[in-house]
Design brief:
Layout: E1 14-15, E2 18-19, H1 20-38, H2 42-63, H3 67-75, E3 84-93, E4 96-102, E5 108-109, E6 112-114, H4 121-133, E7 135-147, E8 160-172, E9 180-186, H5 201-212, E10 219-220
């Protein structure tokens, strides 16, 4: 899995479950990135760089994060700012869902991570499931495209879309990886402690709805 970046701390004044200061800081960063991508005047470049510094200082002050690390992370973003894409594979066996244990926090998640360039969503999901769990699968249905900030995850520095694909189990056996050290199937009433920066109990419940009602359309927003 291409792991997600640092989460911000929650605060009062929420928008879609997130603190308003984080929404504002992300918008300032996006405006700065877009401006730096297209600005031709050195004065405009200087102004947009200043806007980015303000976004960094706002996020660092409110989240207790390292300003230099945030600055480096944002400086690495170029071109027109768009949401990042996190792809997850949803695999069932005998009405149990496949989860993997993350080495980074010892908690459980759906196999998946950042989408890679030149891979389709189905290719990402199938590869991530194989690499993180040891199971080979075939992606068969889009279950959801969600804005991460609206679905109960901890706040994050970047805007992220989460894509969930139902994957049909083909073969394989549980295996560990560089980023995971466990792979098991769980019943809906026996879920382990989840890594909620990656997946929530409500999302897993919705995937079981899709299992029981295969004609449900894909969720979005």
């Amino acid at each position: 899995m291409r792991g997600e970046g640092p989460d911000a701390k929650p605060d009062a004044g929420l928008t879609h479950g997130e603190p308003r200061w984080l929404t504002w800081a992300r918008e300032l960063q996006a405006l700065a990135q877009n401006g730096l991508a297209y600005a031709q005047s050195p004065f405009d470049v200087e102004r947009y760089a200043a806007v980015r510094r303000i976004a960094v200082e706002m996020m660092a002050a409110q989240a207790g994060a390292d300003a230099a690390a945030l600055q480096g992370m944002f400086d690495g973003e170029s071109g027109y700012a768009t949401p990042k894409v996190d792809v997850r594979g949803v695999v069932f066996r005998d009405e149990r869902i496949l989860l993997v244990r993350e080495r980074s926090d010892g908690l459980w998640s759906l196999p998946g991570g950042w989408a890679d360039v030149n891979e389709s969503p189905s290719e990402v999901a199938e590869r991530e499931v194989w690499e993180e769990s040891g199971y080979r699968t075939r992606a068969v249905k889009l279950l959801a495209v969600w804005d991460r900030s609206r679905h109960g995850h901890p706040p994050h520095a970047f805007s992220i879309y989460k894509v969930a694909l139902r994957c049909e189990l083909l073969d394989g056996a549980p295996a560990s990886s560089i980023e995971t050290d466990g792979a098991e199937f769980f019943a809906p009433d026996e879920l382990p402690e989840l890594s909620i920066s990656r997946v929530t109990a409500a999302q897993i419940a919705r995937f079981f709805d899709h299992l029981r009602q295969p004609d449900l359309p894909a969720d979005f927003d």
